[in-house]
Amino acid sequence: MEVPTKNLGIFEGKRAYNYDNFVAQWIPNYQYFMSMLPRLFESTKDKNMLSVGCGTGTEIRHLKDADDTWSFMAVDPSPEMIQLAQKKLEKYGDIQFLEGYVEGLPLQPLYSAATLVLVLHFIKYPNERLALLTEIQKRLKPGATLVLMGIFGSRQDIRNNLEILRLLLPTDVPETEIEERMERIKRDLHLTTEEELNKLLVRAGFEPPTRFFQTSIYSAWITKKPTT
Ligand SMILES: C[S@@+](CC[C@H](N)C(=O)[O-])C[C@H]1O[C@@H](n2cnc3c(N)ncnc32)[C@H](O)[C@@H]1O
Fold first, then answer.
1. CATH, domain range 13-224
2. DSSP labels for 159-200?
């Protein structure tokens, strides 16, 4: 499938290869968040998941380590991220990869679960975020659970929480890197407020979401596709 024009959200080159170190430094409790996933999806009956923006495959590894009967469709437009995920996940079976976008997947089979972790804030326009959520919803079974994580909140929430994030960063991150990255977060990422997220998910065909986790600017939400 042809991948549309480049954008900041597609992790290429150095950004891809440094990604695991970057999240460990910049997202307090990232590992803890990942370690919760098996518990959040424990009651899912058919253990087949759509991992959207799978990146280097960390979500998948946590779920497979907890229960090897999980199978995955892992989607990411970045060839480097797909390659890194394939390497990280080489010892596990039942994982298919799509280098591309969710809309490139057929409407069958339907999945019982999905993740969208650290993706939505790279998508510029609300109608594109709605389209992505709708494409995910169309590929899920009734009752399927979706877990999202990302930078959600008003501009002021994010400014305030960036100052909290600054206090929580490892002490060896150079000051110039901190300043540059904070500026990039304020300038280049696309925020969705809590209210907008609620509306987008409902319009895409999900239940209103519940926030279950927050660490500085990052928050995580859980929702379901209604059963009827
Ligand atoms: C910050 S990484 C998150 C990776 C992984 N979910 C994690 O938490 O470690 C965001 C990923 O989303 C991918 N991405 C960007 N736009 C996307 C889109 N429209 N659909 C699916 N994936 C996308 C990027 O290439 C990148 O690998």
1. 3.40.50.150
2. HHHHHHHHHHS-TTS-HHHHHHHHHHHHHH---B-HHHHHHH
Q: Are 161 and 216 contacting, i.e. CB atoms less than 8 angstroms apart?
A: yes
pLDDT at 4: 46
H/E stretch holding 21 reads: helix 19-26
The domain limits of the chain are 13-224
* CB proximity list for 120: less than 8 A, separation 6 or greater: 129, 132, 148, 150, 152, 190, 192
The residue whose CA is least distant from atom 25 of ligand 1 is 10
Ligand 1 contacts CB of residue 105 (under 6 A): no
* 81 CA distance to ligand 1 middle (Å): 8
Q: Where are the beta strands (DSSP E) in 15-173?
A: 48-52, 71-76, 95-99, 111-117, 140-151
Q: Is the CB of 33 under 6 A from ligand 1?
A: no
Find, among 77, 196, 188, the residue nearest to 127 by Cα: 196
Cα separation, 96 vs 159, in Å, equals 39
17: its two tokens: 């290869």
In angstroms, what is the span from residue 175 Cα to ligand 1's centroid?
A: 27
Q: What is the mean pLDDT of the chain?
A: 94
CA distance 32 to 137: 26
Residue 151 near residue 158, CB atoms below 8 Å = yes
Q: Rounded mean pLDDT of 171-182?
A: 94
Question: Does ligand 1 lie within 6 Å of residue 85's CB atom?
Answer: no
Residue 79: pLDDT over 50: yes
